[in-house]
Design a protein that fits this description.
With 185 residues, the protein is mainly β. The protein has helices spanning 2-20, 77-81; strands at residues 35-42, 45-47, 51-55, 60-64, 72-75, 99-106, 109-123, 128-134, 147-154. The protein has a domain at 35-163: Elongation Factor Tu (Ef-tu), domain 3 (Beta Barrel). Helices cover 13% and strands 34% of the residues. It has a 9-stranded antiparallel sheet. It is elongated and about 80 Å long. It starts with a helix and ends in a 31-residue tail after the last strand.
C-alpha cells in the first residue's frame, strides 16, 4: 500500500508541476522575427560546383514572417550584397551564412536543393549575383530556360538590414538594443 501511495503521489506531482511551475513564454509576441529573402530569375547556372549565378530581373524581396512584427523591403543587388560586407559585426551574413533553398519546376514536380550561401558578388554591372555556396551531395542539372526561386532564411537580423525595411508602427522603448530584435527596429 505504501508503494502504491507514493507512486500515485508522484503521478499527481507530474501532472500538477507543469501547470504550477512558470515556463518560458513562446508566444508570437516574444519570439524573434524570422527574416526571409526571395530572389527569382530565369536562366540560373552553376559553375565549379560552388558558384550559383542568378540574373537580377527584379528586386530581391525581403520580409519577416513574425505575426506581430511584419515588415518588408525590395532590395537591389548592391543593397542585398551589403548584408555580407559587415566584417566587424558579429551578426552579418559574412559571420553567420544564411541557409537557402533553390527551387524550380521540373515537369509536373518541383525540384529543390538546399545549401548555405558563404558569400556573394554582384556581377554584370548589377545585373547578376554570383552566390558562393556550400552543399552536400551533388547539384542537379539546371536548365537555362526555367524559372528559379531562391529562398533565403536569415539566422538572425544582419546588421544594416533596418536601413532597407519599412518600419512597423510600434513602440521602440523595449528590446531595441538586442541584436536579434524582438519587438521593433
Amino acid at each position: 500500500m505504501n508503494i502504491v501511495y507514493w507512486r500515485n503521489i508522484t503521478y499527481i506531482l507530474f501532472l500538477i508541476l507543469p501547470i504550477v511551475v512558470p515556463t518560458a513564454n513562446f508566444s508570437d509576441e516574444k519570439r524573434k522575427p524570422a527574416w526571409f529573402f526571395v530572389h527569382t530569375a530565369n536562366g540560373v547556372s552553376i559553375s565549379d560546383k560552388k558558384n550559383l549565378l542568378m540574373p537580377i530581373e527584379r528586386d530581391i524581396f525581403g520580409f519577416t514572417g513574425h505575426l506581430y512584427f511584419r515588415s518588408y523591403a525590395y532590395l537591389n543587388a548592391e543593397e542585398f550584397a551589403s548584408l555580407w560586407k559587415k566584417d566587424k559585426s558579429f551578426y552579418s551574413f559574412k559571420t553567420h551564412p544564411p541557409w537557402a533553398v533553390l527551387s524550380w519546376p521540373q515537369g509536373e514536380d518541383v525540384s529543390s536543393k538546399e545549401f548555405k550561401i558563404q558569400s556573394l558578388e554582384v556581377t554584370a554591372d548589377g545585373r547578376a549575383i554570383n552566390y558562393v555556396i556550400e552543399y552536400d551531395g551533388s547539384f542537379p542539372s539546371l536548365f537555362s530556360q526555367n524559372t528559379y526561386s531562391l529562398f533565403i532564411e536569415a539566422e538572425c537580423e544582419p546588421e544594416g538590414l533596418n536601413e532597407f525595411f519599412n518600419k512597423p508602427d510600434c513602440d521602440c522603448t523595449e528590446n531595441c538594443e538586442k541584436i536579434c530584435r524582438i519587438a521593433c527596429f
